[in-house]
Design a protein that fits this description.
This protein has 15 helices and 25 strands. The protein has about 500 residues and is of the alpha/beta class. The strands form five sheets. It has an eight-stranded parallel sheet with strand order 8-14-15-18-19-20-21-22.
Length: about 500
């Protein structure tokens, strides 16, 4: 055998407990065929001397929004604007005659109203997306097209969705270009697989036919698509199947190949902490607001019955209660071993909820970088008693719960190494300790972005560790994050997908 690629003199952290380390990796036809002595004497079409660089399985971002992140390049980015006037000046620079679309807005820093936006244009539709994705600000032209909605321009959740629907759809070509743009950044961070959190409809969908954009884009990474539960429709299946709603042809989790596949069914049950719409059992500090709970019981029950893995968006503890109750009901009605349902975010988890998550075998898909970027604010709105419950680490692991790391890009910093550093230190960008006692080791945090992500995406047989037989997806780092002084500062030297270098150089 002549290997396609042989990596030698590396510090390989395999994330495989049966063989934790190696120095040599052999690759043939896109897969790992052996380590160290298994391939030491085999010739290779290309041999790379890593000179001590660290090799890890490629990072998996188990919940992200590639198209939304890429779309920022063709919208007006207001994330650096610190006054209303700066935002308005930026929007006035919009070319063309159609919609004026802004992104990166943060209402917590700069209150903005329809009256403000009306000064930009009296006849063009203006839509400014809140950073959270759960809210927006629109001008009076848009409000007039939303009968029954009374607002000063600030819209959240279902009202936001109604405004967003007015500017859709985006074209497949535009979405494909957005994806290609976004993926360049993803690869620079060592990510080799992404789970796109909701396509076809729902919170941030771009088109009812947007899966075609992922096919057309021919991306150099692996992508798993979470299908929005909003696209379920009644079907006339055989009564023995127990399927009342599905997507066309009965497609569900697992369809596709190792490059592009259908993953979980995405269900939204609440909003977000940034928009103050995450559903809580007790109000946000200093308010009587407990957020917004969306009753998606039917979607969860029908999706489970139709064979889907479920990805239930639940950030607040009240939404987590709802998710756990309904998932338990779904399993009681139609038992499915290893359904491997997920709770996306699992942002505020009370101590009493940990045992239920473990018993149901639910996977929390968390975004540690939220607390790095916004932790000071989140801690303030939760209060001292609840702040330690946010985006847990140690408590999950101590209960035997598998966790998967993710970014929710572009809501927060998408770099896995940044999130891993937070999981270890539990310190925000502002220097605040959030959830002391929830710290985990670097290796445990690395597992969340490799083996844990693969497990959450039902890809553990092909991804998540450098193991013979698995796909040859690697990230090459200049230093070992387990011993480096700053994990987030470790440079990504190269990203390899299927044995091909797709970012950097080795």
């Amino acid at each position: 055998m002549i290997l396609d690629l042989k990596l030698v003199r590396g510090r390989v952290v395999t994330m495989d407990p049966l063989r934790p380390t190696a120095t040599t990796v052999g690759v043939w036809r896109g897969r790992v065929v052996g380590l160290d002595e298994d391939v030491a004497d085999l010739p290779a079409a290309r041999t790379v001397d890593l000179d001590g660089a660290t090799v890890l399985p490629g990072f998996i971002d188990a919940h992200t929004h590639l198209a939304w992140a890429g779309r920022a390049r063709r919208t007006i980015d207001v994330s650096q604007c610190v006054t209303v006037d700066q935002i308005l000046d930026a929007l006035r620079g919009a070319p063309g005659q159609g919609w004026i679309e802004g992104t990166g807005y943060d209402r917590r820093a700069v209150p903005l109203t329809a009256a403000d936006l009306d000064t930009v244009s009296a006849d063009r539709n203006i839509y400014v997306q809140d950073l959270s994705g759960h809210a927006c600000v629109v001008n009076s032209v848009v409000l007039k097209q939303l009968p029954g909605i009374v607002s000063d321009g600030w819209l959240t959740e279902t009202d936001r969705a109604a405004a967003h629907a007015l500017l859709l759809p985006y074209s497949i070509d535009a979405l494909s270009a957005d994806l290609r743009h976004s993926v360049r950044e993803v690869l620079s961070q060592g990510i080799t697989m992404c789970a796109e959190a909701g396509v076809g409809a729902g919170l941030l969908a771009g088109s009812p036919v947007e899966v075609a954009a992922y096919q057309r884009a021919n991306l150099p990474i692996r992508v798993q698509l979470m299908v929005s539960a909003d696209v379920l429709h009644a079907v006339n299946a055989h009564q023995d199947d127990g399927i009342t709603r599905a997507i066309d042809l009965g497609l569900h989790t697992g369809f596709g190949g190792d490059r592009l596949s259908i993953g979980a069914l995405k269900v939204w049950t609440d909003g977000g902490m940034m928009a103050r719409t995450a559903a809580l059992t007790e109000p946000y500090e200093g308010t009587d607001n407990t957020g917004e709970l969306l009753d998606e019981r039917a979607a969860i029950l029908d999706g489970h019955a139709a064979g889907w893995q479920l990805a239930v968006h639940a950030i607040g503890d009240r939404a987590v209660d709802f998710a756990l109750d309904t998932l338990a009901e779904a399993q009681a009605r139609a038992p499915r071993p290893d359904a491997r349902h997920r709770i996306e975010h699992c942002g505020l988890v009370r101590p009493d909820q940990l045992r239920r998550i473990a018993e149901l075998g639910v996977i929390p898909v968390i975004q540690p970088a939220f607390l790095w970027s916004y932790g000071d604010d989140y801690a303030a709105i939760m209060g001292a008693r609840r702040a330690p419950w946010m985006y847990r680490g140690r408590s999950f692991l101590d209960h035997g719960i598998t966790i998967a790391g993710s970014s929710d890009r572009p809501v927060a910093d998408g770099a896995p190494l940044r999130a891993i550093e937070f999981m270890v230190e539990r310190q925000s960008a502002g220097g605040m300790k959030i959830g002391p006692g929830e710290e985990i080791t670097v290796e445990e945090a690395l597992a969340a972005y490799t083996a844990g992500g693969a497990y959450a995406c039902r890809m553990e047989h092909d991804l998540g560790s450098v193991t013979p037989g698995k796909l040859a997806d690697f990230v090459v780092l200049a230093d070992d994050p387990r011993t480096a002084p700053r994990v987030a500062a470790v440079p990504v030297v190269a990203t390899i997908v299927g044995g091909e270098v797709v970012h950097g150089a080795v």
